[in-house]
Fold this protein.
Amino acid sequence: MKKLRTQVAIIGGGPSGLLLARMLQQDGIDSVIIERQSAAHVEGRIRAGVMEHGSVEVLERAGVGQGVAEHGLVHGGFDLASDGRLCRIPIEALTGRSVTVYGQTEVTKDLMKAHRAAGTAMFHEASDVTLHDVTTDTPYVTFRQGDADWHIEADFIAGCDGFRGPSRQAIPAAQRREFEKVYPFGWLGILADVPPCRDELIYATSERGFALASMRSETRSRYYIQCRVDEPLEDWPDDRLWDELKTRLGPDVAANITTGPALEKSIAPLRSFVCETMRHGRLFLAGDAAHIVPPTGAKGLNLAVGDVHYLGAALGAFFARNDTRGVENYQTVALRRIWKAERFSWTLTRLLHDFEDDQAFDRRMRTAELDYIFSSEAAQRSIAENYVGLPFEDVLAG
Ligand code: APR
Ligand code: PHB
């Protein structure tokens, strides 16, 4: 058994874990990252790509803002489309803020590069990761890597291991307060090296269901359509998918769509989930380990960045001057932001997707709401304010 001692043992080396380690490092706090997958796997995963202004600022402060500053596409608005009719939500004019389109894959690569340069202790391909004694002052993590068994003692454990990781499960079920909504459809996504059909995103609803036109760069597009979760991918050859996208986005947008072979194609289920128990003794959950949003509001990564921003500040104050206010307040302060993002993501999902149990009245409600949004600056301002991201609070103030 090999032993190691650190101040914060971070389980999960996705965006949450990597960013937290970076923030701690800047405060002179030692951490170790324990990740189940290989580094190549972590750096290759394709995920969403819209960063709130506040998230970009957090990356900058963590010293990993160069990639997003150089290659991110700053967007001052996006379009809502209903049966081919477009309405631009001018988020920058309405809020004074913009969002930046920059793939989460790139964020992860930037963080990994910074950690390699800093020589951060990272254990990849770790198996049997287990948390121990989290409600005592001497928690520890054990795992296996290759032929070696490891035992890592820490002052705190950060559970950044996503929705299916072991950290949340280390909290006894009876003490976990969880809320979940599973949607009766998924998103079929396609990534292709073709120029985007428009310079901003289009979130579209149509009689045939939802569609999203997004991008990664001026030469790479990302599109999605609502589909059944159990649909086999083989049923969606590229040509059928492009045709369906064109129909849902409407003829004006379709005229600008350049089609091309899929670099990646996959179906993701949609889920809303919150585990309100984000602290259990010396274990803290952050990011997807504590909550999931449907991708419609582009909040997944941004919420993770928010949690880590709070947790980094809380642990920073604890180690600098034994100030426990942040660790005490973390859950309450983080949850206020999380629930509002859950609300926004749920509302947009409800508004733009076709639900199989919708009755004629429900459809009229959606049409009326869209009609209201298209014609009311007040309604658009509310959407814009949430889309660019709600402000951070001071975790030490509570
Ligand atoms: N042991 C160690 N690591 C684990 C384990 C385990 N048993 N189980 C999962 N992990 C790792 C995963 O391999 C992954 O690299 O934890 C990491 C969690 O990363 P993400 O799922 O990406 O979650 P998070 O870092 O919180 O990122 C937030 O924003 O856009 C959203 O959902 C999207 O990934 C996303 C996120
Ligand atoms: C993406 O580009 O992958 C993307 C953009 C916006 C979303 C979801 C996904 O709301």
